[in-house]
Amino acid sequence: MDGTVQRVLAIDAALAACSAAVLVDGEIAAERFETMARGHAERLLPMVRETMSAAGLDFESVELIAVTIGPGHFTGLRVGLAAAQGLSLASSRPLAGVTTLEAVAAAASADGLLAVALESKRADLYLQLFASGEALTEPLAMMPAQLATFAWPEGEVALAGDGAARLAPILAAAGRKSRRLGPDGPNAAAVARIAAARHATAAALAAEPLYLRPPDVTFPKDRRR
User: Fold this and answer.
1) Minimal CA–CA distance to 64: which of 40, 35, 88?
2) pLDDT digits (tens, 9 = 90+) for 119-152
3) How far apart are CA 140 and CA 57, in angstroms?
């Protein structure tokens, strides 16, 4: 296979939704998207099968499988990665990773400065800045106090992601103008386009989970004490 792929299956379950999409010759042939707080494990693979059927493809005809790698919610992120890895092994197709932040940025299509902010289910926000589609920062996990004193670039800030509602008043208190764009989270259609565009290039990402902080874990007490 050379660096060009024409048929990509992409999936996402990293945040508060599940989605699947099939890209054929640069166009989305079929996609499914459902918002959900839980139930990703039960819904994702049936959604993949529905999307493949709607696109009129079997798994052997797919050239690349793409999946969101985070940052995201621990359980959903692992569900998506496990499903993608299983599909990759079963079909002997390569697997590509796309971050949730860049998928939201691609769907937002902002011309100038864009801040993608995603809820982490804790006090901090996941954040990454983009300008005209190019990343200005690495993915970050920042507390509200850090966001207030962050060295924001000059100019109005476009906001995307479900964390934008929390970020907007922080920027306003700091005297910064902002405007809200969509979407609230990633979708598999954007994931498919990103993965296809950079497959076999230096910018390609492995399908390894991107954790910006440790997961919430409660360890059992040592009963020997």
Assistant:
1) 88
2) 999 999 999 999 988 999 999 999 999 999 999 9
3) 38
User: Residue 82 and residue 75: Cα distance in Å, rounded?
Assistant: 11
Token reading at 100? 């949730």
Question: Would you state the structure tokens that stand for residue 151, as one six-digit string?
Answer: 């060295």
Q: What is the signed CA dihedral for 180, 181, 184, 188, rounded to 10 degrees?
A: -170
Task: For residue 35, give the nearest of 211, 182, 186 by alpha carbon.
Answer: 186
Q: What domains sit in the chain, N to C, each tagged with a CATH number?
A: 7-100+185-198 (3.30.420.40), 110-180 (3.30.420.40)
Q: How far apart are CA 17 and CA 118, in angstroms?
A: 13
Residue-wise pLDDT for 201-215, tens only, equals 999 999 999 998 754
Contact 175, 156 (CB under 8 A): no
Q: How much is the pTM?
A: 0.91
Tokens 């992601």 sit on residue: 161
pLDDT per residue over 145-154, tens digit each? Answer: 999 999 999 9
